[in-house]
Amino acid sequence: xxxxxxKLKLLILEVMDEKITIVTAGGFKPPHRGHYEFIKFxxxxxxxxxxxxxxxxxxxxxxxLDKTIALFKLYGLMGHPKFEFxxxxxxxxxxxxxxxxxxxDAMDYAAENPNEIVGFGxxxxxxKYQARFLGATKKLGNTTxxxxxxxxxxxxxxxxxxxxxxxxxIAEFLPDGVDEQSVLTLFKA
Length: 189
What we know:
Strand order of the largest sheet: 3-2-1-6-7
CATH architecture: 3-Layer(aba) Sandwich
Helix content: 25-40%
Number of domains: 1
CATH topology: Rossmann fold
Low-confidence stretches: none
Structural class: alpha/beta
């Protein structure tokens, strides 16, 4: 068996005695099978204490946080004992108005929880975000590099939204066992 860097990082993480918290950030408008699988990758690790998902408030093509939360419920994640969902906080702009930045919330989480070891969960598509997270939080002393979740191809929320708008099948965007009609009904409500 070839021991790749990713496999080595995963093995190291699995033998760590300490529990870690995984934070991740994004829009999740809407969350798709790729999001589900990468979150489950971390939830299934025995030494992961919890996975905290920060989602931005910005609506995308009419899809807001309400649909994001409803889909995470439908996918069975909201009821998982190690899953925690948080809306990104609204921050003031210097020029007036507000904005949300889920990555800043993930960094704030590490700063506000110095007794937890915190890693940034990501897929290969978002690999640069872990480096950004670690660079911004390294002085805290409680953050760690974690292995990336396996990639499920080039799935995107943008393509999911387009399929919904065009009336195309969305089955490829859904986790196994999730009924396409249930999701379509949710979007019609």
